[in-house]
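Researcher: We're teaching a course module on how sequence relates to structure. For the next exercise, students receive a sequence and then see the predicted structure as C-alpha cells, so they can try to spot secondary structure elements on their own. Here is the exercise chain.
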Amino acid sequence: IEAKIADNLTPWKDALDLLDLDTCLLKDKSKTIDPYDDALYTYIDQMYHELCRFPDLNKDCHLKFVYTAMQGVGLPFATGLMEKFGFPKDCVSVVEAQAHPDPEFSTVAFPNPEEKGALDMSKQQALDEDADYVLANDPDADRFTSCEKQKDGSWHQFTGDELGTIFGDWQLLMAHRRGVDPKNCLVINSTVSSKMLKALSDYYGGVY
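Model: And here is the predicted structure for the students to work with:
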C-alpha cells in the first residue's frame, strides 16, 4: 500500500480536467455512484439488530437528551439511531448552531468535545430545556462523550474510561442474560485505558 501511495503522489495526467475546480467534484457524474445513503441506512440497521435490546422500553423513555454534532457530520447518524431504536422524537433536542458541518468551527474555540468549554452551548441548552444528558460527537464523529446533569445543576462529563466501562458492562450483562457462553465473550481495550474492562471480564467470566 505504501508503495502504491508513493507511486501516485503526483496527480494523474489530465486528472484536473475531470474536476469542477470550484467544488472539486467531478464535472460528469453519470458514471459515479454516491454510496452515502446506502452506507448510512445499512449502518443504522446493523446497529439496531446488534445493539437494540429493549425497543418497547425505549418508546417509554422519559429522559431528555441534547445532542451536538460539534459542527461536523454526526447528526444523521445520531438522530437516525435514536429514531431507529424507538426513542420518542421529543426526547432528543439538537444544538442547531452546531448541527451541520462548518470548516471554520465558528461556535467553538476548539472542536473537541473533551476540550474545556467545547460543550458550553450544549450544556446551556440542556439547562434551558431541563434535559438530563448531553451527548456529543467530535466533528468527524469517531469520538463520543456524554454529560449527566447532577442534582445541584452542575454537570458530570464522563471520561473515556467511564464510558468504556459502562458500555462494556452493558454488553457483558446482555450476553449473560441471553445465555452466551462467557468463553465466547472477548474483551479488549487499548494500552492507555484503565483495567476496569479486565475486572468486568473477570466478573462475568469472559476472555480478556
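Model: If you want an answer key for the exercise: The mean pLDDT is 95. The CA atoms of residues 122 and 128 lie 10 Å apart.
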